[in-house]
Amino acid sequence: MNHRQDIERIKKNYELLRIFYYNEKGKHDQLMEQKRELEASLQRALENIELLEKVKLLLQKASEYAREQSRKQIESLVTNCLQYIFDSSIEFKIEISEVRGRPEAEFYVVSNVNQEVIKTKPQEARGGGVVDIISLAIRIAMLQSSSLDIKGPIILDEPAKHVSDEYIIHVGEFLKQVSRMFDRQVIMVTHNRHLSEIADNCHKIAMNEGISTVSLAAIDS
Fold first, then answer.
1. Is the pLDDT of residue 37 over 80?
2. Residue 21 resides in a domain
3. DSSP letters spanning 52-111
């Protein structure tokens, strides 16, 4: 009788253990499946991170290339402008450096005087005239090298205020060349007689008793 009860008790415990085992096995299998899914997700994430790093590097290189191309274009145009107006011994240079992860540009004027190379900031080179011309040339260079298709005229307000009469005629000829080269009309406000004389059309604005009047001015041929 006792043996029969022991056997029944063993069978009951076995059944309980069997149920417990399969419950725990089901949990284990579920956890293993979740582990495989997480490992697959982690692998995809690592692959995506690697891909993003490659894309980031590619974009950085592309940005550096575009920046270098723009630098060369602006340097060339500004240098040509300075040499056209002043003399062939002067060049415009842009130096780009990384500061706190961001590119910063410094502008310099490089002159060759008696076989000696002199590098200065634009505001320290030959007075304000050089600054005026650099500013003018950079505006034109930025306009022409922009990825945007910007139409319309170039509008200037006293573009060579500090340039001496020795060089002002060259400024006028340079603006004529810019107009022809880039097929853009140049509209300029100026008090300088030499610059007004190079225009195809010249209008004079005067104020009489508080009223502004515009009249077509004669251009000396």
1. yes
2. no
3. HHHHHHHHHHHHHHHHHHHHHHHHHHHHHHHHHHS-TTEEEEEEEEEETTEEEEEEEEEE
